[in-house]
């Protein structure tokens, strides 16, 4: 580790793909612009640009070196301007290993090193190193006494508490993930963008064909389409969380997940700011929950959840054992939450139904034949308002505060006093008259920015109680 090393030559390919991805829009735009008159010159110029990209990727790989020396990870990179980055072991918060499909073919991994001030990205990212070398690098930087090499993974599982998701639970997680709505929205957006490239006569003939179909046939097509979206949602969840395993090792949690892209994430316990239990509208009647945590600092990759998932899905009666095993400081007996006052219910009903009433009035006026749609949405919004009021509340026990709220899913979040960064009480005129207040709690979240939790229309005296607890007033 004291000798300078280069990344695996596969890093050349990853560098080229990154540069190509950043330039693909300009290449496509140039092709559309010059495809008729100057196609030969466009191909010639594009070929030259591709050669430059390949050369840049090779030089970037050759000039990128790393080594561990004097308790630091030292990285040197840059083609024309030589840059040096020194990362002290003491500043390192976590070291994550990620293996995509190409990485796994060649037994490689990507090492991402995060510090408290990583910001929008990892402090350092070694795009392609041998898997054994990546694990040795993590071992050296963490100065731990155990190794994570492949031959020792079984030993780790035997000596440290571990929990792995079953195929049945993984399938259930995909079936109840609610991703069908997200996929439908993405496909609708993609079709709206693709529509401008479809010739008018093809588009018009397709619309006429769809109008001419029978109602029953259209309903069947819609049902098939929704089933396909549901299956895609299941597949996406299973690919993302396949082989999900959480292991507790001393003062950190070690999470492995992914079928195509294998991720190994390390979460130091000292960086956990709050732990939550999420019950979605679909999973709550079935008695299943998701366990998540808010982690301080670090970076958030595109496509990742804002909160770190500690376990995708488990039965409600298994939550206590999970906390006792992996996070005993957050384990608690059944708590009787202090609920929101009854006089606050009308405000929750109003906030939930007002947008639907405004939009529904327009639909009912211009499309009278679809007036039943806003009526159904109004009933649903009123029910959601009742649930939001019913589920809101808090419980304070010593230095620990537990709050419960609902947007669409019901969330129960537990945090300690030392993790709270700010407390805010706000009231508008109607709340003052009703002796209600809104409570806002802030902790440090990902990207180093705040994560906020808000409970609206709490009894004013209860808000003062939490304020006194936060400020150590008696």
Automatic annotation (TrEMBL):
InterPro entries: UCP026631 (IPR014529), YdbS-like_PH (IPR005182). Residues 61-140, 243-319, 396-470 form the YdbS-like PH domain. The chain crosses the membrane at residues 12-34, 40-62, 170-189, 209-232, 347-365, 371-387. The keyword Transmembrane helix applies. This is Putative membrane protein. It comes from Virgibacillus salinus. The lineage of its organism: Bacteria, Bacillati, Bacillota, Bacilli, Bacillales. Keywords: Membrane, Transmembrane, Transmembrane helix.
């Amino acid at each position: 580790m004291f000798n300078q090393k280069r990344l695996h030559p596969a890093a050349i390919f990853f560098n080229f793909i990154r540069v190509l991805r950043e330039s693909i829009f300009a290449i496509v735009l140039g092709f559309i612009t010059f495809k008729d008159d100057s196609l030969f010159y466009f191909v010639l110029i594009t070929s030259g640009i591709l050669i430059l990209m390949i050369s840049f990727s090779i030089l970037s790989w050759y000039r990128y070196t790393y080594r561990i020396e004097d308790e630091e990870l030292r990285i040197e990179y840059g083609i024309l301007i030589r840059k040096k980055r020194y990362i002290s072991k003491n500043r390192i918060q976590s070291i994550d290993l990620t293996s995509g499909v190409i990485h796994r073919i060649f037994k490689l991994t990507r090492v991402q090193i995060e510090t408290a001030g990583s910001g929008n990205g990892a402090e350092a990212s070694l795009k392609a190193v041998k898997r054994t070398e990546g694990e040795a690098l993590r071992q050296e930087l963490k100065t731990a006494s155990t190794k994570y090499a492949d031959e020792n993974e079984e030993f780790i599982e035997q000596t440290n508490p571990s929990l792995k998701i079953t195929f049945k639970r993984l399938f259930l997680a995909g079936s109840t993930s609610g991703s069908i709505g997200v996929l439908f929205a993405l496909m609708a957006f993609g079709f709206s963008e693709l529509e401008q490239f479809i010739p008018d006569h093809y588009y018009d003939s397709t619309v006429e064909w769809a109008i001419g179909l029978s109602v029953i046939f259209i309903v069947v097509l819609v049902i098939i389409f929704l089933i396909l979206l549901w299956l895609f949602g299941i597949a996406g969840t299973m690919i993302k969380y396949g082989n999900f395993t959480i292991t507790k090792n001393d003062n950190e949690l070690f999470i492995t997940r992914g079928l195509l892209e294998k991720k190994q994430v390390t979460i130091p316990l000292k960086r956990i700011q709050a732990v939550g239990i999420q019950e979605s509208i679909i999973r709550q009647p079935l008695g299943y929950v998701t366990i998540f945590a808010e982690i301080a600092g670090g970076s958030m990759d595109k496509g990742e959840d804002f909160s770190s998932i500690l376990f995708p899905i488990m039965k409600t009666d298994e939550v206590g054992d999970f906390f006792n095993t992996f996070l005993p400081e957050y384990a608690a007996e059944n708590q009787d939450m202090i609920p929101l006052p009854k006089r606050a219910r009308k405000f929750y009903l109003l906030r939930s139904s007002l947008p639907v009433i405004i939009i529904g009035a327009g639909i009912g006026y211009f499309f009278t034949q679809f007036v039943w749609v806003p009526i159904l949405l109004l009933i649903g919004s009123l029910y959601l308002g009742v649930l939001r009021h019913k589920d809101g509340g808090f419980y304070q026990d010593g230095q620990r505060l537990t709050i419960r709220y609902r947007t669409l899913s019901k969330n129960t979040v537990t945090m300690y006093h030392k993790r709270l960064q700010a407390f805010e009480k706000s009231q508008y005129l109607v709340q003052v008259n009703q002796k209600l207040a809104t409570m806002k709690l802030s902790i440090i979240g990902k990207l180093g920015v705040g994560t906020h939790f808000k409970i609206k229309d709490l009894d004013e005296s209860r808000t003062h109680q939490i304020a006194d607890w936060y400020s150590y007033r008696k």
